[in-house]
Predict the structure.
Amino acid sequence: MEPNIQNMIQRIQTVYFLIAALLVATTLFGTDLFSFDQGQFVHSTAYKLFRGTEMAGKKMDFWMLSLVQIIFALMIIFSFKMRHRQIFLGWILLVLNLLSSAWILLGANVHSIECTICKEPATNLSLGIVFYLHAAAFIFVFLGIRGVRKDKKTIDSLNRLR
């Protein structure tokens, strides 16, 4: 009877971690991390930083951090029988999510003041949708961790009653 209880209880946090993985995965589809105007339009995706109309841009490695987050979320989902491991990986995923949000914020500010040939300061600095999707993923990861902890508490109390 115990495997049925575990599988039944496990569903909601699996949904939370899957939603978080999908939200982070949108980064890999070339959506904008940030953009600003500094004499020419500058915008960044997870792969490159583009200035003006030139197609060649400075290489960005943000996609690797997003891919690591997706892998961690899938590892959490598939290790449903080891709740300690799920909680540990969940906290690591939460920290990675915070780091990726900080990367977007710092990247927007650093790249706006990095231009040495630009004569005017950056204006119209705007964060792309990826920043807000990572904030939503943070919430879903937190809810998933909370669900795993609640399940762990329930299973422990059931084992105590036996």
Q: What stands out?
A: The mean pLDDT is 78. The CA atoms of residues 112 and 136 lie 26 Å apart.
